[in-house]
Amino acid sequence: MEAMDISMALAPECLRNVGGAGAIAAAAREFSARSSCRAIGIQTRQRRLRLIANATIDRSAGDIAREAPAPGKIKIDPQILQPVDGFPALPRTFSITIHGVTLEEELERLKQDIKGVAGVIDVCWIGELVQGGPRGGYVTVQLELQSDATLRSVTSAIQALDSSKLLVLPYKNNSWKWRDYKINFGVAGCGNPIILVHGFGGNAGHFGNLLSYLAENNKVYAIDLLGFGDSEKPKQADYSPDLWAELVCDFAQEFTENGAVLVGNSIGSLSALTAAVKGGKNTVRGLVLLNCAGAMNRKGLTQDGFLLQLLSPVFVGVEYILAQPRFANLLFNRFRSKDNIRKILTQQAYCNKESVTDQLVDILYHPSTDEGAVDVFVKVFTGNNPGSRPEKLMSEVEIPVLVLWGDRDAWTPANGPVAKFFVDLEKKRNDVKFYALEGVGHCPHDDRPEIAAEYIRSFLASLNW
Q1: Residue 437 neighbours by CB under 8 Å, 6+ apart
Q2: Tens digits of residue pLDDT in 374-410
Q3: Residue 285: is its pLDDT beyond 80?
Q4: What is the mean predicted confidence (pLDDT) over 285-312?
Q5: What positions does the domain AB hydrolase-1 occupy (predicted)?
Q6: Which stretch of DSSP H or E encloses residue 436?
Q7: Helix count (H) and strand count (E) of the chain?
C-alpha cells in the first residue's frame, strides 16, 4: 500500500475530527527425525533443480494482450511436474510457523492433529513455544509431505483445524543483522531464489498465500523491510525506497549466490525496481511488479495528473497534523485499529472479500503495536525522499520485467499514469510483459494469489537462470 493512498482515504475525516532415560530416548528420536528430514530435503532440492531446468513457457499471441488471458492460456510444460529419469517423486519437507499456541500442553495435541491432515506423512519436529506475535504465542513446525501434497493445501487444512485461534504462515521466521538493525524474514522451499518485498503497512506475512504457491519450486524469502513487520523500527532512519532498495540488495547478496528475482507490491515494487538499478543484473535477475507505486508520498506526485495536484492541499494538511506529536498519535491509533484495517481492505484494497480474514487483519495490525511504529508512519508520510519515478528507473533496467495490475485498484488505478506507462513500455520492449488482472484490487498477491502465482510461475520458467 502507498502512504499517499491512505492519506487520501483518511484525510477528509481526520481534518474534521481531529527423567533421564526418557529424555535421552526423546532426544535420540528428535535427532533421527531431523536427520531424515534434512536428507529428504537435499534429495528434493536436487530433483527440483533438474525440473526447473526443463521448464518452458507458451509465448502465444494471447500472452501479450492488454488484458490478461484466461489462466489456461498460460502453460507450463507438464514435464515440470513429472518425476525424471524414472525415479518416483520424493516426499518434501517444509517448515511453517503456527501462531495461536500459548501453552506447552497444547503442543502434543497440535502435533497429533497435524499428523491427521491429508498429505502429511509426519511432523519431523516441533520447536520451542515462543511467547508473542499476533496471536500471543507461536511455534515452528517441520512437516514431511507426500509428493502429491501441496504446501498451500496442507497449510490451509492446518489453519482449518481451529480457524478462530490459529494463524498459519507457510515459512520459518529468521533474523539477520543489517547495519546493526534486526531484519526479520521468512523462508521456505528449495530452488532458484525469489525475494518478496511488501508495501506500506505490510510485512512478510502479507505474502504468505503467494509464498505457499511459489515455494513448491523455488526458495522463497519474504522480508520485513526496516520499519515494518518484526524488523526494527529506528526513529532516526531516513525511510525511503532508496533505503529499502539498499536493504534488499544487501539481502540478495548475503543469501543468494547468483542473484534473485524480486517480487514487490506497491511501494515494495518501487523499492524492488530501485534495487534492480542499484544492484545490477548480477544481484537482481528479474522483476515482478504488482500494482507498482509511483512514489512513496505526495512529494513524488508531480507527474501524476491534475486531480492529484488538486488534492495536494489535503496532503499538506495531513502532514501538518502529523507534525504535531499529540495529533500524530491520535491519527495513527485511528488508522491502525483492527476495524479500520478491515474497512480499508474490504472497501478499497481488495475485491475478493473472502481474502480479508481475521488472520490477515492480525498480520497487519500486530506490528503497529511496536515501539517506534508511529514514527515510521509519520516519516513515510512526510519524508523528503519519495524515491525515483518508475519511468526514470525503467530506463536503467535491463532485465526481464513482469507487471501485473489489478484492474480494480482504487489507489494506483489501471488507467493511471504509472500503469499506462508500463502498457506503452511493453510495446517498445520485448523484455517487459504487462497483464491487467480482471476483478483484482491493489494487492494481487493476496487478493487472488492463485492467479498471481500462475503468471509469476510462467515468468520464472521463461528465465535463463
Answers
A1: 68, 404, 405, 406, 407, 444, 448, 451, 452
A2: 999 888 878 777 779 999 999 999 999 999 999 999 9
A3: yes
A4: 70
A5: 194-450
A6: strand 432-437
A7: 17, 13
Contact residues for 63 (Cβ-Cβ < 8 A; gap 6+):
69, 73, 74, 433
Residue 290 has φ and ψ, to the nearest 5°, of: -110, 105
> How far is CA 140 from each of CA 10, 32, 147, 239, rounded to the nearest angstrom?
38, 18, 22, 31
Q: State the DSSP H helix or E strand holding residue 36, giving kind and residue range, or none if neither.
A: helix 20-53
Cβ neighbourhood burial of 129 (10 Å; 0-12, 13-18, 19+): middle
Q: What are phi and psi of 140, to 5 degrees?
A: -95, 135
Whether residue 330 contacts residue 324, with contact meaning beta carbons closer than 8 Å, is answered with no
* Residue length of the chain: 465
Cβ atoms of residues 411 and 1 within 8 Å: yes
Short-list 126, 135, 124, 133, CA closest to 104? 126
* 3-17+174-461 belongs to CATH 3.40.50.1820: yes
**Which residues have a Cβ under 8 Å from the Cβ of 375 and sit 6 or more positions away?**
233, 235
CB atoms closer than 10 angstroms to residue 12? 11
Distance between CA 274 and CA 392 in Å, rounded? 10
Among residues 180, 182, 178, the alpha carbon closest in space to that of 250 is found at 178
Evaluate whether 11 touches 305 at the Cβ level (below 8 Å): no
123's CB contacts (< 8 A; 6+ apart) are 111, 114, 115, 141, 142, 143, 144
**Taking 90 as the threshold, does the pLDDT of residue 178 lie above it?**
yes
Angle at 413 between CA 73 and CA 68, to 5 degrees: 5
Q: Classify strands 137-145 and 120-126 as parallel, antiparallel or unpaired.
A: antiparallel
Closest CA to 137 of 172, 98, 94, 173: 98
Report how far residue 28's alpha carbon sits from residue 175's, in angstroms, rounded to the nearest whole number: 28
Hey, what amino acid is at 211?
L
